[in-house]
Amino acid sequence: MARRTRVAEEARESQLVSLPDIIRPQLATLVDRAPVGPNWSYEIKFDGYRMLCRIDNGAVTLFTRNGHDWTERMPVLVGALAALPVRQAWIDGEVVALNKADIPDFSALQNAFARRRTARLTFFAFDLMFLDGRDLRHVRLSDRQAALQQLLSGVDDAHIRLSNTFTEGVESLLDSACRMGLEGLIGKRVDRPYTEARSPDWIKVKCLQSQEFVVGGISRSAGAATGIRSLLLGVYERDGGFRFAGSVKATLRPIQMRELQARLKPVGEPPFFNPPKPERGRALIWMRPQVVVEVSFLEWTSSGEIRHGVLKALREDKEAGDVHEEKPVVTRAKSSRAGAGSSVRGPIITNASRIVDPSTGVTKADVARYFDAVADCLLPHIKDRPLMIVRAPDGIEG
Question: DSSP secondary-structure letter at 193?
Answer without folding.
Answer: -
